[in-house]
Amino acid sequence: MNLDEVALSGIRDDYAALSYAWYIRLSSLLSRLTRLSGWKGGENLVLIHLQGKLSCVTVDGKIVTMTLTVHEALLELRSEVLTVVLWIDGICIDQTDLRERSAQVQLMRDIYYQCASAIVWLGDEDDDTLPVITALGVLANLQRRFDRDGIPENFDFEGIIGRLSKSALRDFLSRPWFSRLW
Description:
Blueprint: E1 16-20, H1 26-37, E2 55-59, E3 62-66, H2 68-77, E4 86-87, H3 89-92, H4 98-114, E5 117-121, H5 129-149, H6 157-161, H7 166-173
Parallel strand pairs: 1-4, 1-5
Antiparallel strand pairs: 2-3
């Protein structure tokens, strides 16, 4: 992984911007700990949380700390064949430098506007993720059609949503990203 500093004016459409919540759901953290360490769940568990930073990676020979959500996203988005260029505020902005952080926050609208794509990281996938995403995709496509043609009288909204359990939809929409401030 490399970290390059570039002018915003010189990188139009050449990067993706990552949108994520700074904190992680406990269930996602426990799932990751189980996979990585073999933790069984019945044993004692002590988490040390230092300023929201739970993970470290080496970038250009230097150790960079980041939130576990960013680390999860990087693991999922990495590619062995393609170069993936990402702008991630938790890495690209020195969070300890108030002047830099303030200046960068002023640019965030432009950063997200100019990116080739914005990636929303909602956390690790669980059993309900795919059915919920699929149903939301169907609804988005229907909404575009309804905007054009109107809603048919016999439209069966319950038939689409009814296949989802209420708890699956509630749990999905309760992910931290949906309640973040910006």
